[in-house]
Design goal:
137 residues; globular; Transcriptional Co-activator pc4, Chain A; six-stranded antiparallel sheet
Length: 137
């Protein structure tokens, strides 16, 4: 009987340790859902083309792109990008690493999503942060 109680407790503990879905898993589910609803007869090669170049930004000269979901993003270096997205009717600026899987660029765990007020605060700090970086280099 004591063994049954211990086994039951372990089962409850495992149930309590259920993982929250990561952005990576959610993106994978979205991409599966999006790919299932295609009307194309030619297969997956026409669904995952290269990212669309939108235009150049007037201030920095950086190129703007659109991802598979239609969100605008800017490439940083290597596999890092800044994406402007909407989630539950709220604006977020997502600075994140991406990785490639099956020919698709997927968001990784390393990154941060800032809401509009956090983004505005960060913009006010740029000169101060840059000054500190100059002192350290």
């Amino acid at each position: 009987m004591a063994r049954d109680k211990a086994t039951a407790r372990k089962g409850k503990q495992k149930k309590a340790q259920v993982e929250e879905p990561t952005e990576e898993k959610m993106a994978e589910k979205r991409s599966k859902h999006d790919s299932d609803s295609s009307d194309s007869d030619s297969g997956p090669e026409d669904r995952n083309g290269p990212p669309q170049k939108v235009s150049k930004s007037s201030k920095s000269g950086a190129q703007k792109f659109k991802d598979d979901q239609g969100y605008t993003y800017f490439d940083l270096t290597g596999n890092k990008r800044v994406t402007i997205r909407e989630f539950k009717n709220k604006l977020y600026i997502d600075i994140r690493e991406f990785y490639e899987k099956d020919g698709k660029q997927l968001p990784g765990k390393k990154g941060i999503s800032l809401n509009a007020s956090q983004w505005n605060k960060l913009k006010t700090l740029v000169e101060d942060v840059d000054e500190e970086v100059q002192h350290l280099t």
